[in-house]
């Protein structure tokens, strides 16, 4: 198709592509150039200028302030991602290859959980977590993310397993394999790509999540997203520190995107109903 | 038969942790929110007493009479509308260009998508600084300062602090909409691109030979074929916009005269800042109904197709 285009058309097309590239990069420019300025150089008047000399003061201070929260986020995200993926995989396996009377209805009822605005469960959730003594703790937040992550992980795995021929399960059954051994020897090994997609999807979502994090944690257990809003919300914190903090918050998921881009997009298209 | 029965039991056993937790965390808590929204728990003491005095739909009625909530509904409407239109227009335009596989297209595609990997909180933090207006006209900040340096002073205005209103549309939302479109237009692009790659090229070629213009090919062929994908994208984006809590919270808060307030922010403040638990729950249930109105017809439709 390309060769049929006139030069003029090509120029217009690239002009559009580049214009949008600039739009997408403006925040990145502001983030990077501000975060690398020294305290003395950070002033509103020079906001759009590159730093005269590179300074890591902002990063150093942001990191000192945010390091415990970065750790909190990792303590939260890793177990929550693993658990919700493994449970979702088992659920998806049962709901696609071991159907029983009412299992489709059950699937629809499970799925409903991913469409709700979380405000509609928020206050009872906070009370419940206080009652069971998990309010303000990382394990509490892990539990919440695993539970509300189940609908999407179940859906992603069910869609994946549905393409596996029924005959495969039937043949294994005849050979005397049971529900667990069929999962372990057939379904689990073939679903590694699916696991990668789900891991990335859950990692990104839970890392970036804010509503549960701000409602269910205290100063000790705040994940990075909450700590960033507190940092940015205080008037005394310099802009270079705030922008450094924003970069620190964004970096893990950005790295995941850069390294696993293909899987990230797959998950986005598959899991997009969650938004 | 017996074996079948045993199989069902094992299946249920595997599902049971998910079923039980979701029954409590989704259905139980929604019911509880509904219940609280029907009670009179708008003070801390009534909440502590756990008074069971039902007031019917009074909390909802009060909410819809309130100026702040009315503003929130207008804001949601306009934010959702322009957010979706922005994402569709930009996403579709970019996908059409990239579908021709221009040199470097892969690079651009990845560039447009990276904001999807970032938290709304980060997006809000950065764009808040970009759109902070400063004191006009003497002391501009952010993008207003850039306009001044470029000699484009006419474009300076109050951005998200502006209280201007046009047919119920708080123009302060423009700043928030730009930030949200920045984050999500890559998503529409990816959806459209995935769809376009599946379209038979011979179809396009045949139309071209018949003398169809590019615009005709787009409106008469591509758009109709891509309608289901576009619909899904609209549903997802509408869903995102109803939940834009983190973006607003990090970027602007409610703003002067609630110009950038949305129900989710009001719900959070009512519940956790001012002990108005029943009002907060009522807002939450209104949000749930709004999502339901949007999602249920869509789900019924897609299940029928399946």
From TrEMBL, chain A:
<protein>
    <submittedName>
        <fullName>Carbohydrate ABC transporter membrane protein 2, CUT1 family</fullName>
    </submittedName>
</protein>
<feature type="domain" description="ABC transmembrane type-1">
    <location>
        <begin position="70"/>
        <end position="260"/>
    </location>
</feature>
<dbReference type="InterPro" id="IPR000515">
    <property type="entry name" value="MetI-like"/>
</dbReference>
<keyword id="KW-0812">Transmembrane</keyword>
<feature type="transmembrane region" description="Helical">
    <location>
        <begin position="243"/>
        <end position="265"/>
    </location>
</feature>
<feature type="transmembrane region" description="Helical">
    <location>
        <begin position="12"/>
        <end position="32"/>
    </location>
</feature>
<dbReference type="GO" id="GO:0005886">
    <property type="term" value="C:plasma membrane"/>
</dbReference>
<dbReference type="Pfam" id="PF00528">
    <property type="entry name" value="BPD_transp_1"/>
</dbReference>
<keyword id="KW-1133">Transmembrane helix</keyword>
<comment type="similarity">
    <text>Belongs to the binding-protein-dependent transport system permease family.</text>
</comment>
<feature type="transmembrane region" description="Helical">
    <location>
        <begin position="106"/>
        <end position="126"/>
    </location>
</feature>
<feature type="transmembrane region" description="Helical">
    <location>
        <begin position="74"/>
        <end position="94"/>
    </location>
</feature>
<feature type="transmembrane region" description="Helical">
    <location>
        <begin position="186"/>
        <end position="204"/>
    </location>
</feature>
<keyword id="KW-0472">Membrane</keyword>
<dbReference type="GO" id="GO:0055085">
    <property type="term" value="P:transmembrane transport"/>
</dbReference>
<feature type="transmembrane region" description="Helical">
    <location>
        <begin position="132"/>
        <end position="150"/>
    </location>
</feature>
<keyword id="KW-0813">Transport</keyword>
<dbReference type="InterPro" id="IPR035906">
    <property type="entry name" value="MetI-like_sf"/>
</dbReference>
